[in-house]
Fold this sequence. Notes:
Blueprint: H1 2-12, H2 16-32, H3 37-45, E1 47-52, E2 55-60, H4 61-87, H5 93-118, H6 136-144, H7 152-176, H8 183-188, H9 190-202, H10 208-224, H11 229-237, H12 249-273, H13 283-286, H14 289-315, H15 327-336, H16 341-351, H17 356-390
Antiparallel strand pairs: 1-2
Helix pairs in contact: 2-6, 2-12, 4-11, 4-12, 5-7, 5-14, 6-7, 9-10, 10-11, 12-16, 14-15, 14-17, 15-17, 16-17
Amino acid sequence: MLLVHALTRFFRHEASGGVLLMLTALLALLVANSGFSAVYHGILEMKLSILLDDQGLSKPLILWINDGLMAIFFFLVGLELKREVLEGKLRNPADVMLPGMAALGGMAAPAFIYLLFNYSHPETIHGWAIPAATDIAFAVGLMALLGRRVPSSLKIFLLTLAILDDLGAILIIALFYTEHLNLTYLGLALIPLAILWWANRVGLHRMAPIYLLGIVLWVLVLKSGVHATLAGVITAFFVPLTDRFGKSPLHAIEDALTPYVYFLIVPIFAFANAGVVLRGLTLADLAETLPIGIAAGLVLGKQIGVFGMTWILVRFGVAKLPDSASWTQVWGISCLAGIGFTMSLFIGSLTFAEGHYMNAVRLGVLSGSVISAILGYTILRVAAAKQTEVNPA
């Protein structure tokens, strides 16, 4: 009974998603470097097929996870974006200005730093988008561990920044990770899309048809050459905010799906993608431009982009600092934005095939994310202690 109570409290805590993600990544690291390494990689490369008369989908398990399960993750991201735009933090353009520009700077600066390290390496230069992402679960979860030491306005700033960062990542995937287009399948994808538009228009209250249409859209988008995870986002945008009975299908699906995504799907993705093979790793491997570019982009680029853009906007009177926040705390937030993990690993998996390059991606993402997490948490904790000394309760 005590164990059940403890688990319930854990899963209800804001930081639980980030903590579980951290433990899953650590487990993947241990398994990938243990005697079970061959089994681990063998299972991930095992082919799973869904065929009808020899036609259908046949992919390794790792791609079913990255293309299939992550489509559900992006479906949830799409629901969150739609809700925030219609009734949340993204509803008022004035409130979006500061975190929006900070998110833009926080994507551009890491990409630029990555390119500085890789501009003369044609085999790795196309990985520029890997350090541009922020992991919402990790960053917000780590901040939650600080509790009331951080003002609520700063938490909203980070959450809005991370949501817009996700939107940027979705656009990057749509624009730069589309393979050769199959116009036949792309044209067929317009059929479920049109039905989804009609369902949203009339405020359909039954969700089963929307799920079914989303699956059909996912298959057709996958076959068209456009990355399949975008089907999750598109489907989410057509889920009605309110139905004809005044209820909210969007809220209901988001509430029901969130625990499954953050406590099952994302940890499965982390376990499948965070297994860095450390055996035989040398200093020369650590100094390669791919992992160094990613780590430097996450650690330095995010700080320069997020903090720099915030400073410019506040300095010239375009925006104001979040209420009760100090510049030191904004610096800490810019460090937390460097926790790329889930999104960075995902973009890395789209950029490089399994093997040496993907292992280097994992190394760069994990090292950069860990350094950013330690820096951000330490800076925010020190800033909170200083504020307590200046303004004792």
